Amino acid sequence: MYSQIAGTGAHLPEKIVTNGDLERMMDTTDAWIRDRTGIERRHIAADHETTVDLAEPAARRAIEAAGVRPEDIDCIVFATSTPDYVFPNCGVLLQQRLGCRPGGPAFSVEAACSGFLYALAVADKFVRTSDSSCALVVGAETFSRITDWSDRSTAILFADGAGAVVLRPAERPGILSTHLHADGSYKDMLYCPGGVSRDTPAFASEERRKAITMTGNEVFKVAVTSLGKVVDEALAASRLDRSAIDWLVPHQANIRIIQATARKLDLPMERVIVTVQDHGNTSAASVPLALDAGVRDGRIKRGDLLLLEAFGGGVTWGAALVRY
Ligand code: COA
């Protein structure tokens, strides 16, 4: 028994913030942001919009594309680091919103920007072991809420959005393999303080700044190295040559990180789905947003071999080899 991506969906908040808008807010330039990151604009949630608000339309589109109904969904795995509540988790909230049949598991996964790959790997196991016949996998974030808008080194990067896929059982291999990794020794390189359990006077000084904190150039180096290794690992697991890949669907953090992985795979940029210019870094939403873009504009076709990869705070990283 295998699992297969039966449908994809995405949703972005209406408000767009361009590099020009950021020039007026902080000491930066459009030229610097484009040159160092590839980002030109990003979508930012309105004050009343939450992570689950963004996830709901993305999930509905994925469900429709899969040709199923909300009541067919029997498992929800929701990747986010910016949940609506401490609990209930976003998966449970989405189950109720969509009108899914109650009873199946619904839970969230937190692995920062690698979250969607972690969620996909978990849902794949549910479907392959017959615990689920229709799983919804979501990556959705409101990273604008944990961004320090006076910090030009991070505020230019992060953004909001949601993407989703529906996984169904299949006779032929769909998700060929998933590869997840973490290395906590890098925990201070990219993190967001302000955790619930540390919200006490004892941690007051260090937790004051509840915003993304990052040593950008270190993250860059570790990301390039880790992603280079994990894409090799994914290909080796299926004994496939890199020439077999039809599309690289990478985490959209920085065009230079994406280009480095494409070079490593000897893949021309025409075979890479790139949305970073329009979306910025939407963390767990970035891979399913890019996947949906490639599917809906007709580049990704049934039967294509896709290599999904992501890297995030923790640090965490992973890849999935998928026959779409
Ligand atoms: N606008 C203009 N200048 C900026 C700037 C901005 N928004 N942000 C930083 N700078 C300046 C720095 O102050 C520094 O100036 P100095 O040389 O006078 O000290 C200079 O640009 C270079 O800074 P540096 O941090 O070395 O730049 P960089 O080339 O490494 O680019 C990042 C910075 C953040 C774009 C890059 O390191 C990066 O993308 N890293 C990965 C981050 C990431 O993807 N995180 C999420 C992973 S999931």
Can you characterise this structure?
The longest helix is centred in the C-terminal third of the chain and has 22 residues, at 216-237. The protein is globular, with a radius of gyration of 19 Å. It has eleven helices and 13 strands. With 324 residues, the protein is an alpha/beta fold. The strands form four sheets. It has a five-stranded mixed sheet with strand order 1-7-6-4-5, with helices on both faces. The protein has a four-stranded mixed sheet with strand order 8-13-12-11, with helices on both faces. Strands 2-3 form a two-stranded antiparallel ribbon. Bound molecules: coenzyme A. Coenzyme A binds next to helix 2, helix 6, helix 8 and strand 12.
Our measurement of the CA-to-CA distance between the termini, rounded to an integer number of angstroms, reads 16 Å
> What would you call the shape?
globular
Instruction: Give the helix level as a range of percent.
Output: 25-40%
Widest sheet: strand order?
1-7-6-4-5
Which whole number gives the mean pLDDT? 96
Proportion of residues in extended strands: 15-25%
Question: What class would the helix/strand composition place it in?
Answer: alpha/beta
Radius of gyration from the alpha-carbon trace, in angstroms: 19 Å
What series of H and E elements makes up the topology? Answer: EEHHEHEHEHEHEEEHEHEHHHEE
Largest sheet: 5 strands, mixed
Return residue spans where pLDDT drops below 50 for at least 5 consecutive residues: none
List its traits.
11 helices, about 325 residues, about 35% helix, 5-stranded mixed β-sheet, 4-stranded mixed β-sheet, alpha/beta, binds coenzyme A
